[in-house]
Amino acid sequence: MIGLSNISFLNPEFLLLLVFIPIVAFWQLWRRPQREVDLRMSDLSAFSDTKLDWISWIYPILRTLAFTLLTIAIARPQQTLKEEEINAEGIDIMIAMDVSLSMQAQDFKPDRMTVSKSLAQDFVLKRTYDRIGLVIFGGESYSQTPLTTDHQIVNTFLSQLQAGMLGDGTAIGMGLASSLNRLKESESKSKVIILLTDGVNNSGYIDPYQAANIAKELGIKVYSIGIGSNGFANGGGRFNRRARVELDEKLLYHIANESGGYYYRAESSEDLESIYNAIDQLEKTKIEVNVMKRYTEEYRPFLIGGLLILLLEFLLSHTFIRKVL
Description:
With 325 residues, the protein is an alpha/beta fold. Helix content is 41%, strand content 23%. It folds into 2 domains: 4-25 and 54-82 and 293-324, no CATH class; 91-284, von Willebrand factor, type A domain (Rossmann fold, 3-Layer(aba) Sandwich), CATH 3.40.50. The chain has helices at residues 20-35, 52-55, 58-74, 112-126, 151-159, 172-183, 208-218, 249-259, 269-282, 300-318, 320-324; strands at residues 7-9, 77-89, 92-98, 131-137, 141-148, 191-197, 221-227, 232-234, 242-244, 263-266, 286-297. The mean pLDDT is 83.
């Protein structure tokens, strides 16, 4: 099936010949009364059943159709098929997410963990050409997924995260170190860690300041996000106790600044969403799109149709119409 929206003509100037069709038709109609013989007859009953009236229209109709189709064929209609070759210079991104028990706090609705997972999933879906991995940390750290372009896998693991799944405590240094370990062998020109936590480094055996120095040496930027409102928040979980929000902003700022990244503070769901959008804008993937056009010749149906109509006219003029006349 030929789509009109992607049809072009190699020789469109020949289409101007179609202008002659209405001109010739008008000329023929205007000249017809002048060509008729003025013959007076006393009785026309002998011509009452004549078939010449409709037969006289067959030739001009067939010739007009043939002329139209052959003209289109000469204009060389072509169908344009576009092919895109995308060369993407992706970014390697590790998401290091706090899953300590304090992430059950309900100062975010319904709680910090649910909001953090949801917005992280939205962010992952936007990064079409990037490799993304996931590290979680609480009392210890664990690498959930390595760097991958299979974003559905990453989002599946994000959806399964639960606050407290790695025990109590917040091992920021270990979470950062696990992320660095995943990125250190990467050959990508741009490597990024998104570190999200709501606490202070109170667990693990790796100093987060030392981990920040390693990130600087490896050329890996860290965007650190401190999540939680000021004051007190309902703790959520089984006991639903109110607890003071403790956040080591000084540490998070140092990690980001040392590595060439930024520190953000999220006190609401809207804040966190804006932060992910800001990071998405800062870390743009370089994409080169080379569009190649391929053409297919579509003149054959018009050529064959025009020739068949001429053949039909020839056969009618030497068989049926000759017998009628």
